[in-house]
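Consortium newsletter contribution from the modelling node. Members have asked for a concrete example of what our holo predictions look like. Here is one, prepared for the iron/sulfur cluster complex that several groups have been discussing at recent meetings.
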Amino acid sequence: MDISALIHQAEHTHQLEREEIVALLGDDRHNDELFAAADRVRHRYVGDEVHLRGLIEFSNICRQNCLYCGLRRDNQQVSRYRIEPEVIIEFAGKAKEYGYKTVVLQSGEDVSFDVDTMRHIIREIKKLDLAITLSIGEKSREEYAAYKEAGADRYLLRIETTDKKLYEDLDPGMNFENRLRCLRDLKELGYEVGTGGLIGLPGQTLASLADDILFFKNMDADMIGVGPFIPNPDTPLRDAAGGTFTLSRKVMAVIRLLMPDINIPATTAMETLDPNGRVLALKSGANVVMPNVTEGDYRRMYALYPGKICINDTPAHCRGCITGKIAGIGRKVSESHGFRTKCLQR
Ligand code: SAM
Ligand code: SF4
Ligand code: FES
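And here is the predicted structure:
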């Protein structure tokens, strides 16, 4: 296949067939062309502003047992914590002071944060005129509805992989159909929906990654976050090879070509594999960064994978650091809440 022609086609029509995506992902001779095309599409559709979302990792307690994740319930090596609701609200207030327009509340599936507790946290943070993204896993439709009604704006729930068998092998006790049900419910309830996946899971093929990309396009997700799977020594996948920075960056760039107007984060896991990972991602299609605003030792304890960045840094330091990186590539931190603006094809 003529890879340059495929990149050109994708840049201008935003369409690719499954086999074309596989060919593109499997060929490393045209990577710079791919990244440059994704950068142009990003510029044309979502502009030069970068949206910052302040990430609060409020509990590392999880009832699930995903084989790849350091927070899985069987991992005895991690010290567990949950942050008190009033402290979470205080962290959100500080995020606002640092100039963030959105906070992302992320945790393991910790059932002690029941509906009333979450509603209280959401309502209090909404008073600060911040957009709220939740990333707290699989819940019932009624719970999602209650959080929406309380003021939550967005929800992040990665499908992880659209290969049902792989998903269910890697997430024992979880059910692929239920994950899809969650994404459907979130959309119907009016959330901006973010999803995404892990790159480099054991047994994952390029064809499977192409299916993931087409799934994202088909469901018209508002935000797609992809990042390398990084093996954690305290999990059953400790000896797996893991994903590479380059393949993750390529998947992200293809997503930008096919979904020109969505929000795409430069993920933390990408920077873990390459010290300049987020800047390279921002130059290959990404337009969002999620700096950590969690304080103190919690950052280290939210140990999904080894080598996580910023574990010894303060929220103030990260704010300055990321602003400098964004300015350094001639981009600008957005002053808006950063909702997706759906565009007609340009
Ligand atoms: N519990 C919620 C969930 O699973 O949706 C939210 C928190 S979970 C820690 C957030 C994301 O971390 C997951 O969607 C997964 O893709 C990512 N993650 C977990 N383990 C990882 C690893 N070893 N390498 C890279 N990313 C990982
Ligand atoms: Fe829990 Fe999410 Fe980690 Fe799975 S990925 S073990 S649900 S925190
Ligand atoms: Fe945390 Fe750079 S963003 S140190």
